[in-house]
Amino acid sequence: MTGSAIGDEPAPLLLTTRQMAEFVARGFLEFPALIDDSINTQAEAELRTILDTWGSEDRPNAPDSGQPWTSLYPQPSALGAVLRHPTVAGAIQSLVGPDAVFDHDFVHLRPSGDLNGQRLHCDAIIDPNLSFDIQVFYFPHQVADDGGGTGFVPATHLRLIHETDVGRYRHLKGERQWAGPAGSVLIFHHGLWHRGMPNPGSRDRLMYKLRLNPSSPQVLQWNTDDLAEVSSANTDHIFARFDPTKIAMSLRHREPWMGEADFRLEVVARTRLWRHLTNNPKFDVDWYLTRLERRSELGHR
Amino acid sequence: MNPNTQRQQVLFLWMEDSSLEGRIVGWSFFDGADPSADWTEVPYRSGVAALADGWRLIQVSPLVSPMPGHEHEASFLKHEYLFERIVDISHG
């Protein structure tokens, strides 16, 4: 299955089931050096124009919240070309559906020598929904190791916290700071803990962030050609019978900041999200939900 | 503590479980003698190792039962230990 073409753009390259499972388990996907330099150069100029005109009537192509994402930054915008790159458009369609809408965007500039970083946070407010937004991060130029790339903590996206309430955490084992080539794109689950980092490097760091909301259920929106092949049995249990080549093993991905108790709750949260995404209410990893559901029929406190 | 000559350093450690002997999974260091100080590498193997290095434990997160209906929800890191050390200003 492939996505439908948007206007005269090439068809979106939808995510695979394994990529979806990676996103559910870790809360992000990364696409290094995805965009050509010719587009990056133009897009960087557009981002600086947006910065210079922010909040004014002069801002070109200023979107409205709720606007269909496919109408953002129409041709000949280079920023629009980034968003409609088949890989970016395919990831968007896979994660938040073909009818996703614009929430907001922002251009983040971290000047060279700016040693003030943000504290760890997740965006917006505490969000108890199973459905999720995505945030697209686009880096038009190379970001060096000391260049102020976005910091984030893998697999924190399903924890219920509010904004900078996690600002006390300076370092968690396994934390990341993005560094990579020009034209790289990251896509985050809205709940992923992240922060803008200091930039002791020699180049101003420019980054574009776009938040998108789904408008319809996020069920089986990706390329499901491999779904039957990679799906694990509902009985896949690491302490019984399991298949290490199937999706359950992807959903068990453990981060260095997790203790055993944390890890088990994360597996349960991922299982619930995977049930929703695949419309399979019986799916389970390691029998955690099944045993409770079976026994609740026999009596609960 | 003599505020003319000394400052407080505080060290937050988050453990993988409720034991002070547990593995450290997160840490934050704040230094009254050097406000820009930061420890980017995990400073000790365990909370006990911090005690052995002279840190004084001053607060431990309580063990709280989850709210009914929210037994499987995760939010903040549960096992937080707060240490302090008093240093001479010249230390920083």
What's the CATH architecture of the largest domain in chain A?
Answer: Sandwich
Radius of gyration of chain A: 20 Å
Give the helix proportion of chain B (percent range): under 10%
Q: How many β-strand runs of chain A? A: 9
| The named CATH superfamily of the largest domain in chain A | q2cbj1_9rhob like domain
N- and C-termini, Cα separation of chain A: 47 Å
The third-level CATH topology of the largest domain in chain A is Jelly Rolls
Are there runs of chain A of 5+ residues with pLDDT below 50, and where? 1-7
Physical arrangement of strands within the biggest beta sheet of chain B: 2-1-4-3
Distance between the termini of chain B: 16 Å
Number of domains of chain B: 1
Characterize the main sheet of chain B.
4 strands, antiparallel
Describe the protein.
The complex is a heterodimer of chains A (301) and B (92). Chain A is globular. Chain A is of the alpha+beta class and 301 residues long. Chain A has eight helices and nine strands. The longest helix of chain A is centred in the last third of the chain and has 19 residues, at 260-278. Chain A has two domains: 17-213, Jelly Rolls (Sandwich), CATH 2.60.120.620; 231-295, no CATH class. Chain B has one domain (6-91). In chain B, 7% of the residues lie in helices and 35% in strands. Chain B contains one helix and four strands; from the N terminus they run E-E-H-E-E. The longest helix of chain B is centred in the middle third of the chain and has 6 residues, at 47-52. Classes of the chains: A alpha+beta (301), B mainly beta (92). Chains A and B meet through strand 5 and helix 7 of A and strand 1 and strand 2 of B.
